[in-house]
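Pasting as-is:
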Amino acid sequence: MSHLTILPTVIKDLELLEETLLAEHYLVQRPGLIKAFGQDIFPAELVATDSSGLQMGWRWEADGSLALMLDLGQTKDSIGHKTHLNTILRAYALRSALRSAEGVGFVPSIETTDPIGAERAMC
């Protein structure tokens, strides 16, 4: 019997997910196999393992998103799972936002000169 849990996520960019996990010091395998309770092994598009041995996998869903595959029986600390996931999702969102902002130019709406003659932008 498997304890593997499949959770939907908002993650859609596998390369960005890999970059995020590597920056968070996970060992990443693409593709990989995730081990669940007992002898159960499941294929995953990406498998990440942290220094404690916690293993998480992601697989493609029909809507183009990546679902998280996690054996909640790996550790007795469910709060630890939440902490890991929150860190990964925040880092992924930040990297995604920064990537989206690349190439977007900033044009100030008004230019003024302050009392000592320095130009500055007012938005």
